[in-house]
Predict the structure of Biopolymer transporter ExbD.
Amino acid sequence: MARRKHSSVEEEAEIDMTPMLDIVFIMLIFFIVTTSFVKPSGLDYNKPEASQATKKPSANIFIGVSNTGVIMMENRQVDIERVTANVERMLAEAPEAAVLIQADQEAKHGLVVKVLDNVKAAGIDKISVSAGNE
């Protein structure tokens, strides 16, 4: 008697997912590295217009001053007395830090000057103020 050659276990075709996952991870790394990370100040404000405004390199520390006198740092409200301590803490994390003050055009001039004084007291010399043409 002739025996039939039937395999009792059917072989299933499998797709190797490893190359696809490698490509996905490489693309993920590419997009993370090429993305510019922007730290918003947390305030909606109207910049004052300036005809002589110049572009500066991006700053590491952003301070927002609203028209109602609210000071924002790292997306949280800060009292004027705590600006120096917060800037000193950020300066310890990034010693070459620069500060960008984003003040509303209706903000009180005295408050913006106090913020500038507190930043200077923290030991930072690179301070910029955002204007309308930036």
Notes: The chain has three helices and five strands. The two ends are 92 Å apart (CA to CA). Residues 20 and 128 are 46 Å apart (CA to CA). The helical segments are 18-34, 83-93, 109-121.
